[in-house]
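Instructor's aside before we start: the two examples that follow are unrelated to each other. I chose them only because their records fit on one page, so don't look for a connection. First example below.
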Amino acid sequence: EARGRRGAGNRFEAAARLDDAKAFTHAVLDHESLGSTVFDDAAFPLGRGKTVKELTFALGISSQGVRWGVGRTPIVHTVILIAAPTSDGQTYNSLVFTIARFLHDETAFSALRRCTQSEEMWAVLSLVCCVHTGPAAGTAQR
C-alpha cells in the first residue's frame, strides 16, 4: 500500500479474487524484475500463482504519465495490472489480446481516457469485443 492508499492487490483480496495480497504483490514485483512489461505506451504487470483464484485485472490511466521500471525507463499512460491463476493460460492470453486490440482502437480508447468515474470506465469497457484464443479462436464476444 503506497502512501496509505489501498492497493489493487488488497482490493483483489477483498473481492475474493485472490487469497493473499502480499504474496500477489511479491509475484508482481518478481515478474517485473525479469524484464520490461511495457508495450505501446502501456505497462502490463502480472501476478500469477496459486494464490489467485480468478483472472482479474485493474486498469489505471494517467494523463501526466508514470515512469515505469528502474533506471532509464519509459513513461506510460496506461497500466493494466493482471492477476492470473497459474492454471488458466488460455483465458489470460485472451485477456491480453483483447486489451491490446482495445488499446489500438483510438475511438474506444479515447472514450476511456475521457472517463472520470469507474462506472463510466466500466460502460466503455463493456462494449469491448473479447478476442478468444485456443480451440475456439477466431470468435469475438462482448
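Example two begins here.
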Amino acid sequence: MNTAQARNVIEAALLSAANPLSMSDLRRLFDDELDADTVRSMLESLQADWSERGVRLVALAGGWRFQTAPEVAPFLARLHPEKPP
C-alpha cells in the first residue's frame, strides 16, 4: 500500500469513528506494518490538508478525531437552538 492509500484509510477511519482513535487503533488498521512515526507523519499531513476547512483534525488525550472548527460554531448552533426549560 502506498502512502496516499494509507492516508485515505486513516482519513476514512477517523471520519467514520464514533470516538477518538489512538495511535494503536490507527496502526491496527495496517496490522502494525506502519510504525508510529509514519502514522504520525500522515496525521500531520492530514491536519495541514484540513486546516482551512470547517472541520479540523485534532489530537486529544484519547487519540485523534475530526471536529468542527470553532469559527463555524455560531452557524451550526442555528441548527439546534437551545430551548429554555
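The chain has a mean pLDDT of 93.
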